[in-house]
Amino acid sequence: MGLWANPVARQLYVGLVTVSEVGVFTWDDDGVPIFERTVPTAGKALCWVRTNSTGTRLYTSDTGSRTIDVFDITDPDQPVPVQLAPVSGPAPIFQIAVDPTDRFVYVVSQRGGHAAPGNALHVLAVDEEDGTLTEVPSSPMPISLVSPDGRPQGVAVF
After folding, report:
1. What is the pLDDT of residues 31-76, one digit of tens each?
2. Residue 75 CA to chain centroid, in angstroms?
3. pTM for the full predicted model
4. What are phi and psi of 19, to 5 degrees?
5. Alpha carbon of 125 to those of 22, 83, 84, 107, 142: distances in Å?
6. Which CATH number fits domain 3-142: 3.40.50.20, 2.130.10.10, 3.40.50.11600, 3.30.70.1230?
7. How far apart are CA 37 and CA 21, in angstroms?
8. 99: Cα separation from own chain's centroid
9. Are 157 and 97 in contact (CB under 8 A)?
């Protein structure tokens, strides 16, 4: 859920939900995590964490503020805030995934209660120059479920 390893460096990024921070860890030769630092997010209630395939951008979904924090992780142990991107709609956001081409970030939102609106898939385009995000015009796309109490869980992109 709230942790992801950098694909090109020995860094693990951990979402610290209750304090809205990203924990930055490395690990020793036995796989034991070593804490390095925390980095605050601009959004609230950080939930999921993902990087792009080149290990230069870190994306966090912020359930409490319906935003995505974008960090520059060119220096993997020193995440630098780049953007706080809003996600449309009334429902909290949770799971995120970056497509293998690094062109899009997909975000799942979930309704808060019985038959409330909000189950949707959001699509955000990634700017190829700086890695910032913009929600595409066709987003969000509602996710219909049989149960009025159902909530979509997870997102996988290949």
Report:
1. 999 999 999 999 999 989 999 999 999 999 999 899 999 999 999 9
2. 19
3. 0.91
4. -115, 5
5. 23, 13, 14, 11, 18
6. 2.130.10.10
7. 10
8. 12
9. yes
